[in-house]
């Protein structure tokens, strides 16, 4: 009999309240799992403990089979590259079995949790400002936004199910970063549609820098449109249906045919980088799984790493590796964490700092500055310069 450990791999944030909220959620999970399983959690970025710390604890407690899950809403860079590489590197180094689950993903329980948060917002707006029919209300769903059209597309799918499930007059979908449209252009557009109430719902797990940004831009656009009531809905947080989905992502790994996942991707080579500088390459053919038959598993159908996806054709088969060591475990109060220290924004992080970093970086390259880019094999997002994407933050500086 093996001793089972459960590892929840959270995103992490520079915002301490976001980190606290994640740990609150993780601590609510054990009652939903068999009582003899031990659970730990860790973070990919900024916060401590890091993922390896949690794995160390499980190993020291004698767990010889670890069921890990990404604490992620969708499968993008973090779920598809960073976390499986961190886990497989650890498993190879310590000779321990670490299996990996799926992201929370498009799931009726997640849609129900989101629907619950939206209804709460509608009810409190009705109580505060008087009843407005749902058909006269515009729903705006804000996703995180990634360089992966599969993840961005799934945000749009969930948004549609929320609009259709509840019956809103109109729907717009925006993103907090990376892709387009970002929050501000999205809300400016929604303001032109003639709806007197706009519900802004962040499809996010926790608070953090990005939630502050979403609510911050909402206040800004609301101030320009006093004729419209903007309602800031709460994010998912530790909604019971989110907890249920997490528990399912852990337990389903022990089913007869566990769901395929990025930890055993049969479509790309994985590169594990060890502390001693050694590299270990795992070829797709080394990762047999019954689900990878001639027909791709449903979770992989739209994956840009498996097959040509419109606009992302040159990412097929890109090497799977982690590029996140540089922000791992820096601490939630890493330099630059505090908006008050930033000269580029006032009350919330608009993303202007990222644009500045890119500009400075381009400038350094222009002057022949030489530095190590070896860990950045991933392709640049094709629409990084879209006027309604991150560039839209520039005009407010
Ligand atoms: C504030 C910031 C950190 C900082 O610098 O302080 C931050 C914060 C957070 N991100 C979260 C989630 C995700 N982040 C990504 C992806 C990326 N995030 C990146 C940057 C930043 N992310 C900084 C702002 C930069 C800016 O926009 O101005 C990118 C651009 C660069 C990089 O990571 O190197 C990289 C692009 C990779 C690509 O190319 O696609 C994905 C998608 C994915 O998996 O790739 C998910 C969804 C996962 C899911 O699906 O759940 C959450 C938890 C949200 C929640 O609770 O739900 C927080 C916490 C918080 O808001 O504080
Ligand atoms: Co990087």
Give a verbal description of the structure.
The protein is α/β, with parallel strands linked by helices and 397 residues long. It folds into two domains: 162 residues, 3-Layer(aba) Sandwich (Rossmann fold); 121 residues, Rossmann fold, CATH 3.40.50. Helices cover 33% and strands 14% of the residues. The protein contains nine helices and ten strands. A hairpin with a 5-residue loop joins β9 and β10. α6 packs parallel to α7. The longest helix is centred in the N-terminal third of the chain and has 22 residues. The protein binds ligand SHN and cobalt (II) ion. Cobalt (II) ion binds next to loops.
| pLDDT averaged over residues | 92
Q: Using DSSP, what is the number of strands?
A: 10
Biggest beta sheet attributes: 4 strands, parallel
Helix and strand string, N-terminal first? EHEHEHEHEHEHEHEHEEH
Strand order of the largest sheet: 2-1-3-4
User: What structural class is derived from the secondary structure elements?
Assistant: alpha/beta
Which molecules are bound in this entry? ligand SHN, cobalt (II) ion
What is the CATH fold-level name of the largest domain? Rossmann fold
Helix content: 25-40%
Unreliable stretches covering 5 or more consecutive residues: 368-375
Region (Disordered): 364-397
Enzyme class: lyase
Organism: Planktotalea frisia
InterPro entries: CbiX-like, Sirohydro_Cobaltochel/CbiX
């Amino acid at each position: 009999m093996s001793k089972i450990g459960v590892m929840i791999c959270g995103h992490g944030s520079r915002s301490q309240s976001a980190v606290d909220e994640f740990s609150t959620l993780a601590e609510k999970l054990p009652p939903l799992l068999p009582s003899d399983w031990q659970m730990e959690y860790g973070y990919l970025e900024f916060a401590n403990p890091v993922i390896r710390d949690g794995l160390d604890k499980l190993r020291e407690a004698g767990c010889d089979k670890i069921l890990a899950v990404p604490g992620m809403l969708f499968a993008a860079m973090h779920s598809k590259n960073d976390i499986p590489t961190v886990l497989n590197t650890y498993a190879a180094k310590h000779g321990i079995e670490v299996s990996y689950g799926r992201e929370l993903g498009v799931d009726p329980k997640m849609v129900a949790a989101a629907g619950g948060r939206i209804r709460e917002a509608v009810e409190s707006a009705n109580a505060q400002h008087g009843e407005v029919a749902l058909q006269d209300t515009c729903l705006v769903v804000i996703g995180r936004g990634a360089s992966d059209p599969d993840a961005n597309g799934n945000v749009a799918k969930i948004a549609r199910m929320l609009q259709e499930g509840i019956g809103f007059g109109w729907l717009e979908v925006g993103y907090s970063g990376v892709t387009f449209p970002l929050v501000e252009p999205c809300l400016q557009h929604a303001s032109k549609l003639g709806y007197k109430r706009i519900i802004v719902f962040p499809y996010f797990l926790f608070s953090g820098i990005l939630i502050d940004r979403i609510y911050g831009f909402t206040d800004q656009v609301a101030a320009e449109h006093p004729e419209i009531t903007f309602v800031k809905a709460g994010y998912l947080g530790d909604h019971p249906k989110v907890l249920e989905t997490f528990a399912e992502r852990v337990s389903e790994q022990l089913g007869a045919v566990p769901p395929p996942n990025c930890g055993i991707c049969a479509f790309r080579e994985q590169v594990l980088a060890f502390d001693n500088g050694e590299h270990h390459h795992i070829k797709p053919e080394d990762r047999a799984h019954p689900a990878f038959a001639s027909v791709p598993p449903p979770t992989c159908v739209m994956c840009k790493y498996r097959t040509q996806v419109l606009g992302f054709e040159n990412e097929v088969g890109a090497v799977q590796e982690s590029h996140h060591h540089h922000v791992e475990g820096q601490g939630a109060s890493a330099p630059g964490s505090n908006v008050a220290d930033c000269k580029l924004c006032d009350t919330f992080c608009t993303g202007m700092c990222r644009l500045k970093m890119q500009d400075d970086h381009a400038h350094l390259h222009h002057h022949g500055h030489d530095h190590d880019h070896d860990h950045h094999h991933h392709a640049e997002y094709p629409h990084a310069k879209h006027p309604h994407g991150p560039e839209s933050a520039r005009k407010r500086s």
